[in-house]
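Why should sequence recovery work at all? Because a backbone constrains its sequence more than one might expect. Tight turns favour small or flexible residues, buried strands favour hydrophobic ones, and helices have their own preferences. The token representation captures these environments compactly. In the example below, the structure is given first.
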């Protein structure tokens, strides 16, 4: 009798768990670009990447709704090892499931951003199948980062080279510290960007400037980045703790306010940025429906604020 009751209680729980897991996988597929239909073999490349260990990607979630994502491999100027690529994907999944999140700062440990992919690992996966799978793996992950309902900013200290430069373009904004440098060095490696960096760069600075930065492997210092509209601001300090504090303060101007509204704001902009106009308008209507008559809206109607 007890056994039957226990089974009856446990069954809906299992069903619920299965349903949630299924929904999560479906949501990840929707937010990603590539799947098996594109010849993408995720499990194969993950297994390969796990062989190149080192460093870590750390995430801390603060009470103010700001997440801090740290690239942590200072011995190699925060170059992306294989396990760091896999960990980045895991942290992005965590951020997708963080319902209280409003903002994200991406930065590198040890006063430098990231020197791109780990050249030791790259040498070992230089065949075409691994290269294509790694490219699709990183594009999927960085596209999901770009589509997070969080306002994201790359805090660039020291150097952001190659894949590190590409990563900065997956954030909504970039802040640079004095003496820092972003550089798409791919041409020197006989490559073009493959983590989605070229497509995103064109949308940020325009096709002419993007072509110059890529084909000239130009050094982008804070002044040049400001001129190009690539960076929002040059911070006053290049000290890690103080720069992080400044980045937090800068981001807070935009994350201040109710979670539901901030997240909805990022979603309407993502739709506007990515979809054809009519689809973007319909998406905006749907997202509007999630905040209209919601708690923040009703409270504002009671307060009747004057926007002086
Ligand atoms: C997606 C496509 C890509 O990302 S392709 C990779 C593009 N990136 C690169 O080619 C960066 C190559 N590295 C460099 O140009 C220099 O190391 C830079 C980043 C300018 C730093 O110079 P510097 O401050 O003098 O330090 P360093 O050269 O002594 O470097 C310290 C240790 O870090 C290592 N390191 C650096 N970058 C990488 C990398 N991408 N992959 C693997 N290791 C890297 C250096 O080799 C050096 O290590 P070690 O002390 O010699 O053992």
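From this structural description, the recovered sequence reads:
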């Amino acid at each position: 009798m007890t056994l039957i009751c226990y089974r009856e209680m446990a069954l809906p729980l299992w069903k619920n768990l299965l349903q949630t897991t299924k929904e999560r996988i479906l949501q990840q597929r929707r937010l990603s670009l590539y799947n098996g239909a594109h010849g993408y073999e995720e499990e194969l490349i993950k297994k390969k990447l796990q062989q190149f260990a080192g460093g870590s990607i750390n995430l801390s979630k603060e009470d103010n709704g700001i997440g801090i994502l740290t690239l942590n491999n200072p011995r190699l100027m925060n170059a992306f090892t294989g396990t760091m690529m896999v960990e980045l994907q895991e942290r992005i999944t965590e951020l997708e499931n963080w319902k209280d999140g409003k903002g994200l700062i991406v930065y590198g440990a040890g006063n430098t951003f990231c020197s791109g992919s780990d050249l030791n690992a790259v040498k070992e996966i230089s065949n075409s199948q691994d290269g294509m799978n790694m490219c699709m793996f990183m594009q999927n992950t960085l596209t999901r980062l770009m589509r997070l309902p969080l306002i994201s900013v790359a805090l660039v200290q020291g150097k952001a080279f190659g894949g590190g430069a590409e990563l900065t373009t997956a954030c909504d904004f970039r802040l640079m510290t004095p003496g820092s440098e972003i550089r798409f060095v791919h041409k020197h490696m006989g490559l073009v960007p493959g983590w989605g960096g070229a497509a995103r760069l064109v949308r940020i600075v325009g096709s002419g400037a993007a072509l110059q930065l890529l084909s000239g492997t130009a050094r982008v210092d804070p002044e040049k980045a400001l001129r190009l509209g690539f960076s929002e601001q040059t911070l006053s300090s290049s000290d890690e703790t103080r720069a992080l504090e400044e980045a937090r303060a800068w981001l807070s101007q935009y994350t201040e306010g109710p979670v539901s509204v901030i997240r909805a704001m990022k979603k309407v902009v993502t739709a506007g940025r990515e979809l054809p106009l009519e689809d973007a308008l319909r998406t905006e209507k749907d997202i509007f429906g999630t905040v209209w008559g919601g708690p923040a809206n009703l409270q504002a109607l009671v307060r009747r604020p004057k926007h002086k």
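A few observations help interpret the result. The chain has two domains: 41-235+242-253, 257-289.
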